[in-house]
Automatic annotation (TrEMBL):
The chain crosses the membrane at residues 44-65. It comes from Brassica campestris (Field mustard). InterPro entries: 6-hairpin_glycosidase_sf, 6hp_glycosidase-like_sf, Glyco_hydro_9, Glyco_hydro_9_His_AS. The lineage of its organism: Eukaryota, Viridiplantae, Streptophyta, Embryophyta, Tracheophyta. Its EC number is 3.2.1.4. This is Endoglucanase. Keywords: Carbohydrate metabolism, Cellulose degradation, Glycosidase, Hydrolase, Membrane, Polysaccharide degradation, Transmembrane, Transmembrane helix. Signal peptide: none annotated. Residues 82-506 form the Glycoside hydrolase family domain. The active site is at residue 437. Belongs to the glycosyl hydrolase 9 (cellulase E) family. It catalyses: Endohydrolysis of (1->4)-beta-D-glucosidic linkages in cellulose, lichenin and cereal beta-D-glucans.
């Protein structure tokens, strides 16, 4: 249900010196990462990670992450390219903030917006202000925000280094597609009622995705024990229980979400019951292993991500019986996914410029390519960290560098190595889109328009008066063609989910291969095997 509704769209940065008030509501964590010797000093990038989860009493929850990034050699790119792109891409998230903005928000053309979200006669959720807009049309999607948060948390975990007992309904979106596309005004000027779409027993996929987001965030914030435990005990198991109980009333398309959420819950809690759930054939088989999208990882299909997370468990902890049979299946499946990314197998088409067409020629391809680049780089690092030189594709054996080459080729395409010679990340490089499909960026600051009066800004051929730095736009068509026109969101609209995948891939490619944190994600998991007894006392006659 949620997937079908969301698919109709087709569619941070620094809090370097947070106030005392901000510190109470935003948790910061910094981790130092190793640089290569050519780097003269470590470069600190503070970036923001946010998620909004609506339970019965809680409307939205926001979190931030502060991390240090690192550099990596790549023969076809200057060594600092990915690090600069990472720093630029993170700026996009501040442009998407909703509600009251903190003083530290450094996007000068943005202000407080949609303070009254959810406040209308008869509303069950009058406090929906805050959060992040997904794209250029001021819609807030819980599903997509949850996925974006999980992706950002995952990259940090790998490379850093009020609630209820039951849920009966959930908010999955604020703002209606038709209204928000018709009314072209700045978010700051929205004064019409913005209703919340509610689902009851028909959204297990949303509940499982929210559980994954909270679980991954609890790992990121594990050093703040009280907050991490609050995330776990005041939402995770409740959300997942809701998702499981709703599966009987929903389609099989949500099984991958249940698998994805269950894996993250196991890593966050160490509760073996979650491992038992996700390593049963009853859950593994319906998750879409043999579908045409089996290698596609996005906010709408999570199987490849879950397969990789479970492969991580097998490679580094090897839990053995009774989960080994299913873990081996997932290990083989993710290997096949990686094979499908290689051009020699033609599983997915490529443009002449080299962009993989994971969405089968449909619009907005870059978010899918960025996600695949992240998975491939991460799988390569898993193999290297487990002293495995490569993997097999049928009779052929490939070394891990092939995967990183694939990842770099896709990210390089996004950053400007394409037939258009254009960076698809606004503000990065010398040439990038100037007419981004974004209400706030396309209308001058303090210029108030009516819904229809704002059309002149949407239809204008002039460049946006406000530069939305770091936004990765939807991307080119299946022939490498791109039209920098504001009216066509299939080319020029950025999204939270797209940028989250880009950031994750850039984090994976920015550092040395040995920067992977092998054990941090397993910190909540108890020993899988009995502890060896102490040695006997020395023998004496």
């Amino acid at each position: 249900m949620i997937r079908e509704l969301e698919m109709q769209e087709m569619d941070w940065t620094a809090l370097a010196n947070p106030s005392e008030e901000m510190q109470r509501s935003w948790l910061l964590q910094s981790t130092t990462l190793k640089m290569k010797t050519y780097v003269q000093k470590k470069k600190t990038y503070a970036w923001t990670l946010a998620f909004i989860g609506v339970l019965v009493v809680i409307a939205f929850t926001m979190m931030t992450i502060r991390a240090l990034t690192h550099l990596d050699h790549y023969q076809q790119q200057p060594p600092e390219t990915y690090s600069i792109a990472l720093h630029t891409g993170l700026k996009f998230f501040n442009s998407q903030r909703s509600g009251r903005l903190p003083e530290e928000n450094n996007v000068t053309w943005r202000g407080d917006s949609c303070i009254q979200d959810g406040k209308y006669p008869g509303s069950s959720y009058p406090h929906l202000s805050g959060g992040y807009y997904d794209g250029g049309n001021a819609i807030k999607s819980n599903f997509k925000m949850s996925f974006a948060m999980t992706m950002l948390s995952w990259s940090v975990i790998e490379y850093h280094s009020n609630s209820a007992d039951t849920i009966h309904d959930m908010v999955f979106q604020v703002g209606h597609e038709g209204t928000e596309r018709y009314c072209w005004i700045r978010p700051e000027d929205i004064d019409y009622q913005r209703h919340a779409d509610i689902c009851f027993s028909e959204c297990p996929d949303l509940a499982a995705e929210m559980a994954a987001a909270l679980a991954s965030a609890s790992i990121v914030f594990s050093k703040n024990v009280a907050y991490s435990q609050k995330l776990i005990h005041h939402g995770l198991k409740i959300l997942y229980k809701y998702a499981e109980s709703s599966m009987n009333t929903h389609t099989s398309s949500s099984w991958d979400e249940l698998l994805w959420g269950g894996v993250w819950l196991y890593y966050a809690t160490g509760d073996v019951s979650f491992l038992d759930r996700v390593t049963t054939l009853a859950l593994a088989d319906p998750s879409g292993v043999f579908s045409r999208d089996s290698g596609v990882f996005s906010w709408n299909t999570k199987l490849a991500g879950a397969q990789l997370l479970l492969t991580r468990l097998r490679l580094f902890l090897s839990p053995g019986y009774p989960s080994e049979e299913v873990l081996r299946k997932f290990y083989n499946q993710i290997g096949n996914v990686m094979c499908s990314y290689l051009p020699s197998f033609n599983k997915f088409n490529r443009t002449k410029g080299g962009l993989i067409q994971l969405n089968h020629g449909d619009p907005q391809p870059l978010q899918y390519a960025a996600n695949a680049a992240f998975l491939a780089a991460l799988y390569s690092d898993y193999l290297d960290a487990s002293d495995t030189p490569g993997w097999s594709c049928g009779p052929n054996f490939y070394l891990t560098y092939v995967l990183r080459d694939f990842s770099r080729s896709q990210i390089d395409y996004i950053l400007g190595k394409n037939p258009q010679n254009m960076s698809y990340v606004v503000g990065f490089g010398e040439r990038y889109p100037k007419r981004v499909h974004h209400r706030g960026a396309s209308i001058p600051k303090n210029r108030k328009e009516s819904c229809k009066g704002g059309w002149k800004w949407r239809e204008s051929s002039k460049e946006n008066p406000n530069v939305i730095e770091g936004a990765m736009v939807a991307g080119p068509d299946g022939h490498d063609g791109f039209h920098d026109v504001r009216t066509n969101s299939n080319y020029t609209e950025p999204t939270l989910t797209g940028n989250a995948g880009l950031i994750a891939a850039l984090v994976a490619l920015s550092g040395q291969k040995d920067n992977l944190d092998k054990n941090g994600i397993f910190s909540a998991i108890p020993p899988l095997f009995p502890v060896a007894p102490p040695p006997p006392a020395p023998w004496t006659p």
